[in-house]
Each structure stands twice: as structure tokens, then as C-alpha cells.
Amino acid sequence: MFELSPVLAGCREKERLLVAQNKAFDVYSRITAELAKHAGMMADADFQFLYDIVVTARQVLSEASHHLSEHTAKHGC
Predict the structure, then answer these.
(1) Distance of alpha carbon 66 from alpha carbon 37, whole angstroms
(2) Which of 3, 14, 21, 75 falls 20 to 30 Å from 61 in CA-CA distance?
(3) What is the domain extent for residue 51?
(4) What is the pLDDT of residues 40-62, one digit of tens each?
(5) Which of 5, 24, 16, 7 is closest to 64 using CA atoms?
(6) Could you tell me if residue 31 is inside a domain?
(7) Domain total for the chain?
(8) Residue 42: CA count within 13 A, CB half-sphere
């Protein structure tokens, strides 16, 4: 997990973006673990369904990280 530094705690937007990134990371980690756990043990259609969720979760995490990076670069916080 990514932690908020006490120095940066004053920026509520950065804190909100960090929470969003942490949640996205948690979802991505959990669903990836599920996919790995069941790989080779489920029907192709079920695997594809789970894989598509992993891809979506990865995109959400990437976007959350991007928004956080943009905010930090723009505001210097």
C-alpha cells in the first residue's frame, strides 16, 4: 500500500487520490490472486471473464496512479 506522508496531509485532493489509488491497488491485487489461484482449473469462458476483470482493474489502477502523479506534478504537494 502507498502511505500518505504527514508533510503532505494538508492536501485533501492528494489524500483523496491516494485513497483511490490504494483501493484500486487492493482490488487489482485480490482479483489477480484469484485468477492465479484458479488458472488451469476452470472453463475457458470463466477464465476469460476473470481475466477481463483483471485487465479492467489494471486500467483503473493505472488511471488512479496517473491522476495522482499529475496532481503532484501540478501542485507540488
Answers:
(1) 29
(2) 75
(3) 43-77
(4) 899 999 999 999 999 999 999 99
(5) 24
(6) no
(7) 1
(8) 14
Q: Return the C-alpha torsion angle 44, 48, 50, 51, nearest 10.
A: 130
Residue given cell 504537494 in the structure block: 77
22 part of a folded domain: no
What angle do helix axes 44-75 and 12-38 make, rounded to 10 degrees?
A: 160
Question: Which pLDDT score, from 0 to 100, does residue 76 have?
Answer: 87
Nearest-angstrom CA–CA distance, 15 and 12? 5
Q: Identify the residue whose cell numbers are 477464465.
A: 47
For residue 66, give every residue at least 6 positions away whose Cβ sits within 8 Å of its Cβ, in sequence order, or none: none
